[in-house]
Every structure is written in structure tokens, then in C-alpha cells.
Design goal:
By secondary structure, the protein is of the alpha/beta class. The chain contains 6 helices and 5 strands; from the N terminus they run βαβαβαβαβαα. It has one domain: HUPs (Rossmann fold, 3-Layer(aba) Sandwich), CATH 3.40.50. It is about 40% helix and about 20% strand. Strand 2, helix 2 and strand 3 form a beta-alpha-beta unit. Bound molecules: adenosine-5'-diphosphate. Adenosine-5'-diphosphate binds next to helix 1 and strand 4.
Length: about 160
């Protein structure tokens, strides 16, 4: 049987408990999930690609079926290169839906063989975003409710 490989693309700047929840809920659905950090040259990131990679790897170090990678191309081209047949995304709001609908339909017309799969966020994670976390850090607030413990403790030690 063919391996069901999914790519979960994002900026993960930083990775939040919302992202983590989507991954954990997707584990029973796929054989392998590649968490792919998109490096968009137009968008200056808050955390380095090395830090984002290190954190996500640490969070999933006990999960053999989860890989972490970076990419610098069209998401769908990257997914095709990995052999993935699925793109995994999370949906929080109707704004997310409208954004994802357009990208999903473009991706489908470019590569019909790759299916986009969407998981609705848990209600308690709907308001969590990397943008909000970065904003809280700028004003030296407490982010421990929004990011996994390992990220929260490093932010508290090194960024506040
Ligand atoms: P992007 O810049 O591609 O939106 P993000 O890192 O913000 O990258 O998000 C990556 C994926 O995770 C997207 O599908 C996004 O909708 C989803 N996501 C972001 N925040 C949450 C959350 N709080 N709950 C569930 N899914 C989320």
C-alpha cells in the first residue's frame, strides 16, 4: 500500500498550540506528516528558521512519522517534490476559509493529484495565531497559554 504523506505548510513564527493540535489530530489519518516551514523572502520572520525548526523538532521528537523541513518555493511544488498526496491546513474562521478556498482551488488546478485536507480548529484555539503571540512578546506579556511549554520557557528566558 502507498504511504499517505501529508505536508503541513506554514510560517510557524512561532509554532502555537493551535498548530500542535492540528498535527496531533491528523496523526491517525496519515502515515507521515512533513511540517514544512515556508521561508518567504518578502516576509521577515520574527524567529530564525533554525529556531523554528529546532522547536518543532523538539516537540515531536518522539513521533517517528513526523518530519520537519524548510522550503523556499511554491508550497504545491514543494509538496509534489516530497511525494506527498495531501496538503494539510487548519481552518479557524470564515476569513481563513475564504483565503484557503482560493489557494486550494489554484493548487488543485496546478496539481490535481494533490488533495488539500482541512481540519476545523478546536473552538478554544480559534483566536490563537502566531501574529498574536509575536505581539504579546513585543509587549513582554505571558505567552505560556498559546505556545507549547518548551517554546514558552525559551521565550521567557531569552526574549522577554
Ligand atoms: P501561514 O502563514 O501559511 O498561514 P501559519 O503558520 O500562520 O502559516 O499557519 C499554518 C497553518 O496552521 C494554517 O493552515 C493555519 O490556518 C493553521 N493555524 C494557524 N493557527 C491555528 C490555530 N490556532 N488553530 C488551528 N490551526 C491554525
Amino acid at each position: 500500500m502507498k504511504e499517505r504523506i501529508a505536508v503541513f505548510p506554514g510560517s510557524f513564527d512561532p509554532f502555537t498550540i493551535g498548530h500542535c493540535s492540528i498535527i496531533k489530530r491528523a496523526i491517525p489519518v496519515f502515515d507521515k506528516i512533513i511540517i514544512a516551514i515556508g521561508l518567504n523572502d518578502d516576509k521577515r520572520s520574527f524567529f530564525s528558521k533554525e529556531k523554528r525548526t529546532e522547536w518543532i523538532k523538539a516537540i515531536f521528537r518522539d513521533y517517528d512519522m513526523i518530519e520537519v523541513d524548510t522550503f523556499n518555493s511554491l508550497t504545491i511544488e514543494y509538496a509534489k517534490k516530497t511525494g506527498a498526496k495531501f496538503l494539510l491546513r487548519g481552518l479557524r474562521t470564515s476569513a481563513d476559509f475564504e483565503f484557503e478556498r482560493q489557494i486550494g482551488q489554484v493548487n488543485k488546478s496546478l496539481y490535481p493529484e494533490i488533495e488539500s485536507i482541512y481540519l476545523l480548529t478546536l473552538p478554544e484555539h480559534t483566536y490563537i495565531s502566531s501574529t498574536i503571540v509575536r505581539e504579546i512578546i513585543k509587549y513582554k506579556g505571558d505567552v505560556s497559554r498559546f505556545v507549547p511549554d518548551i517554546i514558552a520557557s525559551e521565550i521567557h528566558h531569552s526574549y522577554l
